[in-house]
Amino acid sequence: MHLSHAILLFFAAAIAGTLNAVAGGGSFVSFPALLFTRVPAVTANATNTVALWPGLAASTVAYLKRLSAPMRLMVPLLLTSVAGGWAGALLLLRTPQHTFLHLVPWLLLGGTLLFAFGNRIRATAGRAAVVDDLGQLSWQAITVASILELLLAVYGGYFGAGIGFVTLGMLAALGMRDILAMGAIRTLLAAAINAAAVVTFIWVGAVLWPQCFVMLAGALSGGWFGAHYAQKADPQKMRYLVIGVGLAMSAYFFVTTR
Length: 258
Known about the structure:
Number of helices: 10
Structural class: mainly alpha
Number of strands: 0
Order of helices and strands: HHHHHHHHHH
Number of domains: 1
Distance between the termini: 27 Å
Shape: globular
């Protein structure tokens, strides 16, 4: 790995860590950076997932005190998250490099749109009746939520950008209104999805470790900075920045992968 590539990856991961701590969407920066350094597309996605996961895990630990959902809801959601994340990771590994490279702009664009319109999805879902006690949820509602989570987890293991907002929409549809509690569940489920993918990628040797370690250092540095900056940042402006980066990266890869 060239020094210039190491510097690029470190700062791209630092920006990604900052964005994830403030507004989300860090993969829109770190994943293309790996492609710019000529890392094959599937390997780049696997390496990016592993490099950014510790920051997500740290966020999960910080959120645990806000986790108040009953086990009868969380156990099915966690099981489907792990199963879907594993299935998505295997699907990625079985996708030819050139095929995935041509999917990249569509995946980036799809993730950007999910990120951009996630609040609207959540607001629409939020019209469902409020449930004061999630322990009173019917098994039918839990089953539907688990099926949706399985589908989201497959996408998450395969690529993953933007799923957090859809997860919030699903939780709002279940009747949740406490945004901090919803954030805790969303972060835990995302960590479970990516943990399954991370284990799979490491097990099959799909990770480029020199690039991964450089990005890991950058992501942790950016996450630390972002956690402090988040208290002062304008979330709406940060969202616009992430959306702008996502659209720009989508346009770039639509042109270069034709």
